[in-house]
Amino acid sequence: PLRAHPGAKVALWPSRWTPESLAQRIADLGGEGSVEVARQLDAVPQNDNSLAFPESYILRALEVGNDVHVQPDWPVDQIPEGAIIIGGVDIAASEKATADESAIVVLLLFPKGSLKYGYPPGYYQILWIEAGRWATPETHRRVHDVAHRFGCVMYVEDNGVQRFLRQFPAPPTPANEEEPRRPAVVLPFQTGANKLSPTQGVASLGYDMSAGRVAIPNVGGAVDEQVGHLLGELRMFAPGEHYGDRLMALWIAREGGRKHSAYAGGSVDVMVVGGDDGAEDRDELGERSTRRAG
C-alpha cells in the first residue's frame, strides 16, 4: 500500500510522494473513498462477489442521495412529517495518534416510509458525520452539541466512556446563546454478537442500500470529506475484522432508530411528527437540503 491506512494524508514514502502529489493522485482516481483509491493506494482487494457492501450497493445509495447535502443542524420544527432524527456514537478507547477515532453519525429516518416522498419503510438519509481522536471531555462536548443542533436522542456504544457521558453534567450553554441548552438524552447501545446478525448486524446495512433505503449525500458523486471516509470503510469492511468508526456509528444510529420505530416494535416513547403525508413534496425536500447546505 502507498498509505499506512485509508484516509491518511501522508504517504509511506514521503520523499517520493509529497502531500500535494498524493492529494492529486487521490483526486485523479476518483477521490477519497473511491474503488480505485482503495485498490491502488490502500491495496484493498475489490471483489463484488465477496464484499458485504458491493460497489453496486454503494452506487445505489449514492444515486438515492444525489444532490443531497450534509446538514450541520436541523431545527426540530422543520423535521418532515413522518420522520425522526437519531444519532449514533462510536467511542474510541484511546486518543493516541495510532488509536481508532470516535465518530458521530446523525440520520433522518422515515420508519414507515413516505407515500408523499416515495420513500420505502425504513428509509434513512445521512445528515451529518464527524469523527476524530478526541479526549473524553471533548467527546462529551461534541455529543451534547450535536444533540442540541439536531434535537435528537443519541445512542452511544455502552462502555466506560458512555457511562461517563451519561453521568457527567451537561456542558455550559455557549455565551452567545440566550436560551439555556437542555441536557442531551444519551442512551446506551449494547454491542456484541448483534454486530454479526445477518438481519440486524453491520452487514445488513448493505441490504438497506441495495433496496434504496439509504441516501448517502453527494452532488454528482462528489462527497464531503467525512462521507468519503465512510465510503472507504464500507469498501474495506470484512465481518469479524476491525469495523470502521463511522460505519459503526452509522449502524448504531440505524439500530437506535429501530428501537424508536413502530415498524420494529420499539417501546421507547418519542415524538414522530405526523404521518405518511409530508409537508413538502420530495422535490421541495431535496431543494431545501440544497439550500441549507449553502
Secondary structure: number of strands: 6
Q: How much helix, percentage-wise, in residues?
A: 25-40%
Basic shape: globular
The side-by-side strand order for the widest beta sheet comes to: 5-4-1-2-3-6
Rg, Å, rounded: 19 Å
Q: Identify low-pLDDT runs.
A: 262-294
Which range does the strand content fall in?
A: 5-15%
Secondary-structure element order, N to C: HHHEEEHEHEHEHHH
Q: What's the pLDDT, averaged over the residues?
A: 79
User: How many DSSP H or I helices?
Assistant: 9
The biggest beta sheet reads: 6 strands, mixed
* N/C terminus separation: 37 Å
- Output the structural class: alpha/beta
Care to describe what's here?
- With 294 residues, the chain is an alpha/beta fold.
- 32% of the residues lie in helices and 13% in strands.
- It is built from 9 helices and 6 strands, in the order αααβββαβαβαβααα.
- It has helices spanning 19-28, 35-40, 55-64, 136-150, 160-167, 205-210, 225-236, 245-259, 282-293; strands at 84-90, 102-110, 123-132, 153-157, 186-189, 214-215.
- A 6-stranded mixed β-sheet has the order 5-4-1-2-3-6.
- β4 (153-157), α5 and β5 (186-189) form a beta-alpha-beta unit.
- The protein is globular and about 55 Å long.
- 39% of the residues are buried.
- Residues 262-294 have low confidence and may be disordered.
